[in-house]
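Q&A log
Question type: sequence-to-structure
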Amino acid sequence: MAYVLLGIAILAEVVATSLIKSTAGFSRLWPTVACLGGYALAFLLLAQAVKEIPVGVAYALWSGLGTAAIVAIGAVFLGESVGLAKLTGIALIIAGVVIVNLAGEH
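Response status: OK
Response body:
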């Protein structure tokens, strides 16, 4: 169940991060409310997940998968470029997450 909570936390963080641009520097009310609500939900669920998952493993998954998802969203929906350097960086992040999980104490 802890990994389900972590997955939902990552999803909430990715949605919140995706909304940052639409807040216009936190000057637009509803996008700001949605963005901050997403972050609040994400941290609430992350706090619950780390009751059972080691913090290092949880944060590796959180940051790695979140970063990869945001790069993909930026490329697909926000018109951001994705070159070889970005793809290599994402591959290294994912490799790091895998290594941390393999070395983690589950």
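Response note: The CA atoms of residues 53 and 106 lie 7 Å apart.
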